[in-house]
Amino acid sequence: MPDLQDIQAQHDRYIDSLIANFERELDAIVAGAMARTQARLQDTLSVTDGAIDRTAGNSRALRQLDRIILQEMDRGGFQQALDELVVQFPGQLPFFQQVLDTLSASMDTPLPPIDWGPRDIQVFGAQAAVARDGIEAVMESIAGRVKNRVILSIGGSKFADLVTTLAESVQRGLPEVAGLAETATSTYYRVIADRGYQMIEAETPGKLKYRYYGPFDSLTRPFCQRLLRGGKSYTRAQIDQMSNGQIPNVFISGGGWRCRHQWVISV
Hints:
Number of strands: 4
Helix content: 55-70%
Largest sheet: 2 strands, antiparallel
Oligomer: single chain
Strand order of the largest sheet: 1-2
Strand content: under 5%
Number of helices: 10
Radius of gyration: 23 Å
Distance between the termini: 17 Å
């Protein structure tokens, strides 16, 4: 039977592969979307000697830039890439079962089995939908910021400069999309764990305690370092009083954005 460290490593590889594939698809989608956006602007804007004319028509066209970017992103397959990412979230269920099996094997009284019901599946589906909506919202925010930057700096500028600004601004926003995708994937797993541990607590006399588990390296933030160094066990009530300074509900959010840690039953 694998130990917790082995399971963690396998789980990390699963998440890394998911996010890497999503990032590769996103890069290709953005490249195509920027090329099509450029072509649409070239057909729409009035340009003289390479400079964008100061006209009401050009201003109206540029105020639609965020909508154009999002349309071309969708045309390039952004929604499909999101679907492909989110549909793989439930693939983390076996990792949680492996964690339970490993913990149970070291206990005098084995943990009760988990039987996921329709309500649990609904909760998981809702979490996936929240993740999808959140990633869409970030992309919309990036498109909005790009539009505002272009509008504020466009007066008399070269069309070539607009194209450069557009591409660079969108590219700078992509790590934000990837970061949220990784956070959403890990959060989904912790929602699985939260539901599973609630079932176990309902069938286990006394209060269970949990310890923080995961890597301790140069990427580990101070909040997670304190919990890992302390090596203490906490009740759910104690964990619910904690704050990582980023995202509420530490049992589900861990240390915050892109956190790689989880809570496991203390044995």
